Structure formats: C-alpha cells, structure tokens
Here is the input.
Amino acid sequence: MKITFYKQYMHWRLLGFARLLFWGDKFKQRFSVAGMALLSLLVLTMVFGVNTSKTLIYQMFSLLLVLFCVALLLNIILALFKKRQFVIQRQLPISATVNVPVAYSIELHNQGTPDVYRLRMGERMPVVQSSLAQFSTAHDPLEEQRNWYDRKIGFYRFVWLQTWLRGGEFHTQIVEKIATQQVFYQTMHFTPIRRGWVHFSRLRLALAEPFGLMYRFETHEQAQSLLVLPKRYVIPQHLSLVGVQQYQQGGITQISAADDTQEFQSLREYRAGDSPRHIHWASLAKAEKPLVKQYQDEHFSRQVLVLDSFADETKADTFEEAVSLAAGFALTMEHGDCLLDMMFIHKTNKHTGTLTFDCALEQPEQMLQALANLDVCSQAKFQDLADLVLRQSTSFGACVLIVMAWDEERLAFVRQLLAQDIVLRVFLLIESKDNTVYRSLVELEGHFHVLRAGEVQQGLDNIDVV
Here is the structure.
C-alpha cells in the first residue's frame, strides 16, 4: 500500500514539474527583456503605490498599466489577423558527436510586406514525459552543489533530465532585421549531451509588437532527426590488436554476407565434388555444361569487439563509458586486410546482434552508428552473448572484450577464448565510487585491465603492455 501511494505521489510530482516547466517557459518566451522589466516595475509600483494619499507612485503604475494593456491589445490583434509571413527550411548535418558543438543553418524567406526587426528564432522542443525510473536514476551534474531542499524536491534534476531526453540545450537566436522578400540564412548552435537520435519537431519565430515588449509566435513544423554518435577515447597504439591472418574461400564478401552473391575471379568447368552452390547457372544455358565460380584466395585478420551490455539502469553512466571505449577501439582497428565484428545484445528486441565491417572499405561513421543506439540490457543473459561469440570464435584472430561486471561466468568465457589462442584483451569498467580490488589472475596477466568511469582515458594511457 505504501509503495503504491509513493508511486502515485511521485507521478503527481513529475506531472506538476512538467506543467511548471511548460508554463514557465511559455511565460519567459512571451516577453522581451523590456517587457520583463515593465512587469517588474508594474508589480513594484502596485505594492508601493497602494496608499494614494501619501505617494504619487500610483500615477506611474497607471501609466505602466496603460502601456502594458496597449501592447497586449496590439499583440492580440496582430496574432489574430496577421497572415503567416515566413517560409523556413532547416538544414541539419549528417551526424553529430556527444559534447561536440553542432552548427546548422536555417533559411528564412520573408514573404510579408513590412520589414521585421528583432526577430527571435529558436527550436520548440516538447516537454518529454519522463518515467519514475528515469527520474530516480538521473544524475544532475550540479546536484551535489545544491542545497538540501533542492536535492530533496528534485525540480532541478527534472529540468536536467528534460534537457538530456531532448538531446541537448537549444538556444534562441536574434535576427536584427529581415527586409521584405529577403532570404536570410541564420546559423544555429547546440551541443548534444547524449548519443542516439535527437528529434527536431518545430521552429518557432517570435515577432515583437510595435512597442517591443511582448511577442506573438509563428510556429513552423519541421520534423527532422539527427543521429548523435558516441564520444570515443583515444586508444594508445600499443593497445591496438592485429590477429593472425586466416584464409577464407570467397574472401571478405562470403564471411560478411548472408547469401551467396559474392564476387568471383573466374569460371571453370565443373568437377566431381564441387558444391552446387558454386555453379554459375547463368552460363549453364549458354555453354550447355555446368561452370563453377572460382574465387580468389584471400587472407585477412578477423577481429571481434564484444560489448557486454548487461547491467541495471543505475550503471547508465558506466555503460556510456563502455560505449565510448568500444567506439575508440572500433576506429583503432580500422586498417586494411581486416574484418571487424561487433557483437552485443539489443535491448529493444532482446536478441543478439552481429555487425561485420570491412575495415578497408567501410566508413568509420558506420561503425559508430552501430553503437549510437545501444542501451543497457537488464533482463537478458550474458550466456546468450557468449554462445554467439564462441560459435564463430574459430575464425577470430583477435578479440576486445568490454564488460561492466566480473564473475565466474565471464571468467569461464575468457578462458574458452584463451584456449583457442586468440589475441585477447579484457577491459572491466567500474563505477567511479567502486572501491573493490579486482586482482588479475596469473592466466590473465597482460590481458585484463580495470578502468574507472570518469578516468578512462587516464587509465588507458597508464596501461603498459609487455
């Protein structure tokens, strides 16, 4: 009963925070700096001018009230009868990176007759309904500096969570003047604070009434999405892995493709024992005898990057560090004559995922895109991922394993990889406040490294490999 009441109370509190944030933002966006100053003076003169027999401040209050009412009336009339004046087009980049400022352009076409001054332009991002679990596990970077009341109530944590869910903080830009029929280009900036998709919904123009005290809004629907790639750590050169090159018939195409449409070098006559899958059926009709596709012999190193995403949602910060570490290795392994397999578990559909990249051909962004939308899996099993890796381990030359926990199950998995003479490196990501001492076993000497969240780059730089 107490748990149900607490959840209901927290639901009401989050709903109240959302409404307070919505109306507060709406109020601040409605008035200019001069308008906010007018409202402040209006309140002060009303308080100090109550006694009309001892002070003349009430006269100033009357003048300010008349000015405010006239501006409000003009703003309402313009909003009701003024036609839409602008045509807008947003141009986003292909992708962005966490904590790296992004610049994109807005094209404004003033189709109205009068010139427009002091136009305020910004993204209109909706208030995202956050869950109780998200609010409970959210960590405001400035929360430790706030007083006891603010930490207990959690309003500023809710504000930070809204910024995080939206993908970043968006600032308004002021355009001093746009002439009639002018096409104007404005550069907008924002800094993404999380990876994944950032959804842009609407652009809002704020046009001031003649006194410049308050704005009327012109909203334009511009639904677009931008993929934010994870940040990546710089992997020291001595930590990069190059496994033993192995022969594979059909080369890179056969090992990375699910069907049998790989390229071949030449055709030859059919011999007893040849696989029917290699028969070139298109030539059979012309030559009236079976011909077989002959492949070019290729040797290459196949590397695997295994990301262990099994943890509870309280380790979200540690998981972000793990993804950034995986992104760093994905780019470090980029060289010729190499295949990179990235293996992980999807949270959404709870199945194992394998992506194979030809490091000589693929763009680095394609590897990072595969990591951009990963989430912590709290209800899946590590054994599913281990079985996936072991089924293909005979073709691997090197393996990088990134985990957020260390137990007998993971130790047994590592021993199975070492038994196959795979060049292996294991990285254990722990929380910043974790004081557990992880002793490296003798059999894992030189293969096992512990990195602390928040100090990953320093930890990588301090690793010595014999």
The CA atoms of residues 88 and 320 lie 36 Å apart. The radius of gyration is 31 Å. The chain is about 35% helix and 30% strand.
